[in-house]
Amino acid sequence: KHFEPFGPNNMTPVFMSTKAQVVGDPRVFNNTTCVFKVRRNHHSNSSFNYSPDNVLECVLYRSASANGCDTFELKTGHLIDIVYSVDENHWNDKTKTQLRIRDYKPSN
To answer: DSSP 3-state assignment of 67?
Structure first.
């Protein structure tokens, strides 16, 4: 929020973290939206500023032709590198932080 307002002359910040560990199996909605959770892997040099027990929800929007999460099979325990922006999700009078995934790949 310190960087707002966002627009053509002030784009939303984009971050990258490596070796984020997938927690639980992703859910796909309408074949275009993939929701999953990640946490910092304890062997990672990730930029997450959370303890290894904290879990962050991620949302990935794809076109219908991209098949939601099918580009790479996300499963519990997989390590992925993610590029994301930080958003707030407002739902049922609750606000929570979520990562809007811009891209991801398996960690090496």
So the answer is: coil
